Backbone:
């Protein structure tokens, strides 16, 4: 089975095969003496609607080549199997360059054909079930239910380690059996049966830079081992087949040059869940949202709390062990990205260039921007339902947890769930250097209710955790995002 051939995503490939039976019979009215077989492409999902990053507009398809076998069942009008698990062999090309399909002769040399013509097999019925890869164990199947059960069992018992058996895991089916319809089966032209095999599974495709070391590949929180499809353009490209019909929840982590990278999509990161379908390919690349798996922690409050600060995932020193104590990025209040500078002058410059509605410095007293990507850096950078907490949600965390500051790290531990989160005091920025670095100032999305130049933040020190009501909007503070339960 040839892999990694690309065509435009709107096309389906049908490989035309030459007749292997007696073509004179077809011309005289035989119902089926000629076989055509091909494979429909693995359709690429729309990267916008699916909210999975993809860097191209190509479709993945497969091709049969000389030496491939597929199994064929022919059913009569009574639903009984007339020809069961016939091994159909791709024996090469004819003089016109078209694929030749033959009935394989068991016990013969590789490529030898039986004395049965294709017409003898195909003309026994009008209902067909064809599948790839061939499996001799299916020879005992006697009805459509057994064939459907085989497909279901294949999908449900798919191995998590596909490192060496990608082709064997890619179940292709073409059938017009009632209740077991996959792909396309056409008998419109007299003497011809056309089979277009379809993929019964969904595919994940992702690329990581060559030389990377695997840290974690997770599908719905479980380890998997994909197949290394190709190495080109400075990247290793992996493929993984999985059961369709669920929500795509993927995390890929790798280490390169001592730095931990990750990209993923899943239930915590997307506004709309990605429901996977058979025959579709879902692709992650470097432009996908890079947020570590299991980021959200249940602290016994109305929201889930991130286990580390916004931007810590891109810190050059980040590891799974230290990420919760890294500063991440600092932003001015209502600024949805890291500007790299802070203070009154920087805030004025930012607000003067603001074009998406009311500038942050003009937002009224008591305003709450949480979840608005124009102002909320967590929503803008992490996507999905991530956002900066309100002052009320910070207070809820204070009430739900015990508080401890030790060795320069603040720890909140939930009285209800026992879970903990850690925060590093980094002070505040109103220039290029931080001030009061032993105090934990973290932004809320809530403006002051008394002063239009101020907003509410936290103020953590060695003895207590409180809300600070006098933080200037132009100061740069870190962000600890939350997400709804």
Residues:
């Amino acid at each position: 089975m040839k892999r990694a051939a690309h065509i435009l995503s709107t096309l389906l490939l049908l490989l035309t095969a030459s007749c292997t039976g007696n073509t004179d019979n077809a011309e005289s009215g035989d119902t089926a003496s000629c076989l055509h077989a091909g494979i429909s492409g693995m359709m690429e999902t729309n990267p916008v609607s699916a909210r999975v990053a993809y860097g191209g507009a190509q479709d993945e398809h497969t091709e049969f080549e000389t030496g491939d076998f597929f199994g064929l069942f022919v059913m009569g009008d009574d639903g009984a199997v007339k020809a069961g698990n016939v091994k159909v062999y791709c024996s090469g090309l004819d003089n016109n360059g078209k694929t030749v399909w033959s009935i394989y002769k068991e016990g013969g040399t590789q490529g030898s054909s039986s004395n049965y013509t294709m017409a003898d097999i195909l003309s026994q019925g009008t209902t067909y079930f064809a599948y790839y890869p061939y499996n001799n164990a299916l020879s005992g199947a006697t009805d459509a239910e057994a064939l459907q059960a085989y497909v279901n069992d294949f999908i449900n018992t798919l191995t998590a380690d596909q490192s060496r058996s990608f082709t064997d895991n890619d179940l292709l089916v073409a059938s017009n059996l009632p209740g077991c319809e996959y792909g396309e089966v056409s008998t419109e032209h007299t003497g011809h049966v056309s089979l277009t095999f379809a993929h019964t599974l969904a595919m994940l495709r992702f690329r990581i830079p060559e030389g990377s070391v695997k840290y974690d590949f997770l599908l719905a929180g479980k380890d998997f081992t994909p197949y290394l499809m190709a190495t080109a353009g400075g990247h290793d490209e992996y493929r993984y087949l999985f059961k369709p019909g669920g929500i795509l929840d993927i995390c890929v982590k790798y280490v390169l040059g001592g730095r931990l990278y990750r990209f993923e999509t899943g239930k915590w990161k997307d506004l709309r869940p990605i429901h996977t379908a058979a025959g579709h390919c879902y692709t992650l690349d470097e432009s996908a949202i890079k947020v570590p798996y299991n980021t959200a922690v249940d602290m016994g409050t109305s929201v889930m709390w991130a286990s580390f600060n916004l931007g810590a995932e891109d810190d050059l020193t980040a590891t799974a062990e230290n990420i919760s104590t890294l500063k991440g990025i600092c932003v001015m209040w209502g600024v949805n990205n890291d500007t790299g500078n802070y203070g009154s002058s920087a805030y004025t410059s930012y607000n003067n260039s603001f074009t998406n509605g009311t500038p942050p410095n003009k937002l009224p007293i008591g305003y709450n921007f949480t979840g608005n990507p124009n102002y909320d850096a967590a929503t803008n950078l992490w996507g999905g339902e991530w956002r900066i907490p309100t002052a009320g949600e910070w207070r809820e965390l204070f009430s739900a947890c015990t508080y401890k500051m030790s060795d320069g790290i603040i720890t909140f531990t939930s009285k209800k769930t026992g879970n903990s989160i850690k925060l590093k005091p980094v002070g505040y920025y109103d220039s290029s250097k931080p001030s009061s670095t032993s105090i934990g100032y973290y932004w809320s999305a809530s403006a002051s209710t008394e002063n239009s130049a101020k907003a509410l933040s936290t103020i953590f020190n060695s003895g207590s955790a409180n809300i600070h009501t006098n933080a200037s909007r132009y100061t740069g503070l870190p962000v600890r995002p939350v997400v709804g339960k």
